[in-house]
Amino acid sequence: MKYARWFIDNSRGIRLNILVRIMAGLLQTGLALCVVWLSKRLIDDVAMRGTMSEMAVQALLIAAAVVAGVSIRQLNQYLANKAFIKKVAELRLAIFSQLFNRRLFEANDIHSGDVTSRMAKDIDAVSETLAVQLPQVVVMTIQLVGAFLLMRWFDSRLAWALILITPLAIIIGKYISHRLKRITLSIREDESRIMARIQESVELNVVLRALQGERWMQDRVEELQDRQTANYIRRSRFMVFSRFALGCTFGLGYMLAFVWGAYGLRTGAITFGVMTSFLQLVGQIQQPILSLLGAFPSIIYSTASIDRLKEMEHGEEKQSCDGEDITTRTLLGIRMDNVTFRYAKGDREVMSNFSHDFHPGTKTAILGTTGAGKTTLFRLILNFIQPDSGEVTFYGNGFTHAADKSLRKNVVFVPQGNTLISGTIRNNLLMAKPDASDEELHTALHTSCADFVFDLPQGIDTVLSEHGGGLSEGQAQRIAIARGLLRPGAVFLLDEISSALDEDTERALFSRLFATRPSTTILLITHRKKVASLCDERLEI
Ligand SMILES: Nc1ncnc2c1ncn2[C@@H]1O[C@H](COP(=O)(O)OP(=O)(O)OP(=O)(O)O)[C@@H](O)[C@H]1O
């Protein structure tokens, strides 16, 4: 039921397309049944007693119905492709935007390689079911009912005999669906693990080679690959078995119709026309049933994918107000009152009853041993994580507000490490302020001591590869600082931004920064005493 709800909710945007295809499918069914009826008339009435011209008219009618049927099928195919492409794009965008709303630093975070796999394979699987398979199932069901009713009109006993096979198909289907879903889930999970390993191998290629860990990594991928292959084969065997069982059932059904018809012809109970119709109708009942059986595994696979996509929706970031950014022009201070925090239940407390007041406009150096909780402090201020108890409050001239996502516009955060993306230096900077003028970009680069950019042959339009590839660590760090400087914000959170800089550049950087931002409240994490001595306050964590 929950899957039905998901499909209904997500059919938005392609409902008209689906409706048109169902109507077209109905028309197609009507035409196919018309062909059956016209064939019967051609044989029983026109061929036996009619004139040549009547026969020609009848044959033309059949040909027209056949051509119309084929045209509608092609149109259906085209519309199905269109709906599929549209749904994939829509779902991908929706899931992509959720990436920026999910709660961060959760214990059960999904691996980035897994996210990539879900965004490709799972989205394709559910879109295929939603846009292609399900509408086809509706049409096939209608076709089945239509053919059944027409057959009942010709000979009700035979129709019932054939339809009795269906419960058998349902029982077999139910038996395999449960196992099929389990195998599919484990195939998808392994796919995610493989993608995660591949992604890490690309990203940490140099490290792996230096550690001579290539063989180790290849063995891990091979293990996963072997397990996945075994599951794929298990699933195929399962499908072969089920198709064999169902194929036999329907094959026998066809034979039953054939023998029944032959017997009827012998006893004179039916005409040659009825016999022809029988055989056509048996085909028309079998074909939708077989198509339904074909659609069945894909639908099962896609329910596994829905579960995996839903997992990505979970854990929306908390926000106290209605999502509007709050921007304040006053100087801002940050007060931490008795803050206690641990990352997950059972973990040790990273912070216990921590209190401190970062006064408006002050520059505070935050020092402490590795793992003491300095970065965690920044995450709390940015509200990426929330205290288990205690409060983090922003305050200023007549302004007080609990730390919240809506206040992020007032905070500039420059994390440690290389955080540049591929593309030009300009684009890396514009990410922080899309409408920044050239002058603003130049000023930011100068303040962050990144003047070296102007000496590059392509200057600010130099193209970088992944993670700012093409630059040294220290150069990338300074561009990341310039990017932060383009943001508005009365509070700067700088996490070891000068760790890759030489002493002279580091001193120049902080003196330019403090000179150009005299009233900005700056919290900077550092391990260097010299940097700390440039600040108004020191906080040991
Ligand atoms: N996402 C997380 N999940 C669980 N524990 C975490 C997570 N991030 C950090 N921790 C733990 O919280 C503690 C504080 O980490 P934090 O990154 O704040 O330290 P730090 O003082 O910034 O260290 P460093 O100077 O090495 O950057 C560490 O013991 C770390 O193991």
UniProtKB/TrEMBL annotation:
GO MF, one annotated term: ATP binding
Domain ABC transmembrane type-1: 22-299
Highest rank taxon of the organism: Bacteria
Membrane-spanning parts: 20-39, 55-72, 130-151, 157-176, 244-265
One Pfam family it belongs to: ABC_membrane
Keywords assigned by UniProt, alphabetized: ATP-binding, Membrane, Nucleotide-binding, Transmembrane, Transmembrane helix
PROSITE patterns linked to this entry: ABC_TM1F, ABC_TRANSPORTER_2
CDD domains: ABC_6TM_exporters
Recorded topology in the membrane: Multi-pass membrane protein
Places the protein is found: Cell membrane
Name this polypeptide is given: ABC transporter ATP-binding protein
